[in-house]
Every structure is written in structure tokens, then in C-alpha cells.
Amino acid sequence: MTRAPYVCKISVLFIAVVSVLFGCAGIMPALTKPAVTVSNLRVEEIRPFETTLSVSLRIINPNEFPLTIRGVTCNVSLNGEKFGTGVSDTTVQIPPFETAVTPISVYSSMISLIRGFMKLHSKNQLSYEIEGALRIKAGNFPFSSFPFEHEGVVDMEHMKDMR
Fold it and tell me: Smallest Cα–Cα separation from 151: which of 75, 87, 95?
């Protein structure tokens, strides 16, 4: 008979803890996936077998709470051909409803670079696609990986006029 009140107290405590945990989960706003766009691209280094590009990505935080970007991985394609792979371990803090730019080092073989430039002579446009993942920490959420994709077209004729 003495065990019944003990079991009852444990059950009430368990129900209270579960209710608080699920109640708090309902209070936490949902994490909206950040948008990622290409902000800039420039050649950093050309070596006999490899080219290093610096790609600046603009990350847009559409959430009501700050985000911490702990790392980025990506693949870059030019005119439909895989061009290179990039990584960054830079930590970036993005306040709510703000943006930040983070640099990514993209590594490409010289063969990919030459193949890409040979295709440029036959086209007046350069299409690009970047796909990858952001390693994000938001509020009390643990670090999670969020995939992203961005593509665009650069008019090469327009670039000549800008000189």
C-alpha cells in the first residue's frame, strides 16, 4: 500500500515534466531556412594544377532570433559543368532579419578551369549554380545542416560594357 502513493507521485511528476517540455517546444518559433545568394567571385590563386577562387555568399536570416553559421560546404558549376568544391569554417553571427557575407574558398583543377573558359568563347552568357549546406545553430537548437542552392546567369556582353 505504501508504494501506491509513490507511484502516483512519480506519474504526476512525469506528466508535469512532459507537459512542460512539449509546452516549451510549442513556444519556440519554428526555424525558417536562411536564403543564400552569391555576392562576389574572384580568383585568389592560380597554380599549375589548381585554381583557388574566393566566393562570397550572402546569407539572409528571415528568423526572429539570431543564427550562428559555423561552417559552409559547397559545389560550384559553370555552364552546367562541375567546376569546384568549397569549404569554410568561419563562424558568422547573423542578427534577426539581417544578412551577412561569408567568404568560401573554392578549389578547382586547372582542367576544369580551362574547360570552362573554352566554353565561354561560344557563349555570351555564363550560367552558374552553387549548392551546398550551412551548419547552423539557432537559439537553443543544436547545430543542424541546412542545404541550399542558388543559380544565376551573367551576361558577358554586359560585363564588357562595364569596363
Answer: 75
pTM over 0.85: no
The C-alpha cell at 116 is: 570552362
Q: What whole-number distance in Å separates Cα of residue 41 and Cα of residue 44?
A: 9
Q: What are 26-68's pLDDT values in tens digits?
A: 455 688 999 999 999 888 998 988 999 899 999 999 999 999 9
**∠158-161-163 over CA atoms, to 5°?**
120
> Cα 69–130–72 angle (5° rounding)?
20
| CATH of 31-161 among 2.160.20.10, 1.20.1440.230, 3.40.640.10, 2.60.40.10 | 2.60.40.10
Q: Is 147 exposed, middle or buried (0-12, 13-18, 19+ CB in 10 A)?
A: exposed
Q: pLDDT tens, 106-137?
A: 999 887 777 766 666 666 777 889 999 999 98
The structural domains of the chain, with segments of one domain joined by +, span 1-29, 31-161
